[in-house]
Amino acid sequence: MKKKDNKEQQQKRERKGLTAMNRFALVLTCFFLLTSSFSLRASDSLRVTAVDSIGMTVDDMDRAVEFYTRVLTFEKISDVEVSGRDYELVQGVFGARARVVRLRLGDETIELTEYLAPKGRPVPSDIHPNDRAFQHAAIIVSDLAAAYRRLREFRVEHASTGPQKLPDWNPNAGGISAFYFRDPDRHFLEILQFPPGKGLTKWRSTDRLFLGIDHTAIVVADTDHSLRFYRDALQMKVVGESENYDTEQEHLNNVFGARLRITAVRAAQGPGIELLEYLAPRDGRPSIDLHANDVAHWQTTVIADAPARINDLLRERVFSLVSPDVVTLRAYELGIRAAVLVRDVDGHGVRIAAK
């Protein structure tokens, strides 16, 4: 009997020991998860204060400027030629010589770059809106029907089947009207009109047809992983979330069965960045190997208080370097004094700069 009691007591002690070990293991696991996550979110080593411009590489600058200024009423604000070792290093293109034109619409700016040397590859003919290479700029209009008629007058290439109004059952996106199209280099663009009560206050203006750029949208494989870069590393703020589907969304994106998780992030100034994760269909292709002189290359330039600290975040594996490090620019031709070009986990270009 005594032996039996001793055996039962020993088993109880072992069970208690295992329970305590399990608790300790759980606490330890939570600690490492929390500290790992916290170290990325709490760090103030790299804080984006503004989205400065949305950039695209173009094949023919004169043709591109004609399109954006004549059709979409952008205004040219600068036109420079850049070259030299510092620009080569920033863009990751050996022997780079480029013409860079900045255009403004309302308060927002796009930056068009034509590489005079070396020339890159054209936009692949088969990029689909659910491929990770997809990116667009969303131009806000005061009257979508009138804007669509204007685009038809200039025979723009459709990317949507036609203008779409998102259904009212969707609380975050209902009532938004939009249409995808392409510029002469076949970059995707969007015109978008917010209904009353949605969008920034400034988009309620009716003094012009084309008002400005609300955001650039990028397709991502995993929103949560992408947020580790845009929200946690760059400290941009999540300002909106939505799940969009139904026939209108399918025809807008021109993707049958499209169901998207959409997450918008913003800095204190400038247009936002929208993360588009296709929950269905999941057959979008992964990112393609792009160089800055390829016409499919986009780069969103963000202004940070300490861009050199980007190196401290390399271990997080939420981006890869294109520039070997932050590069100080000899001249102020691009309006920035230092920059580093990186690619996020889906291959989208982000140029982190200081003014």
Could you explain the architecture of this structure?
With 355 residues, the protein is of the alpha+beta class. It has a single domain (48-307, 309-354), classed as 2,3-Dihydroxybiphenyl 1,2-Dioxygenase, domain 1 (Roll), CATH 3.10.180.10. The protein has 6 helices and 18 strands. The chain has helices at 2-42, 61-71, 85-91, 144-153, 223-233, 247-253; strands at 48-58, 75-83, 97-105, 108-117, 135-141, 157-158, 164-165, 177-182, 188-193, 210-220, 237-245, 259-266, 272-280, 298-304, 319-321, 327-328, 338-344, 349-354. Strands 1, 2, 3, 4, 14, 15, 16, 17 and 18 form a 9-stranded mixed sheet that branches. Strands 5, 6, 7, 8, 9, 10, 11, 12 and 13 form a 9-stranded mixed sheet that branches. The chain is globular and about 50 Å long.
Return the average pLDDT rounded to an integer: 90
Tell me the series of helices and strands, N- to C-terminal: HEHEHEEEHEEEEEHEHEEEEEEE
Helicity range: 10-25%
Give the full name of the CATH homologous superfamily.
Answer: 2,3-Dihydroxybiphenyl 1,2-Dioxygenase, domain 1
Main beta-sheet annotation: 9 strands, mixed
The CATH C-level name is Alpha Beta
Q: Report Rg.
A: 24 Å
Beta-strand content: 25-35%
How many separate domains make up the residues?
A: 1
Name the overall outline.
globular
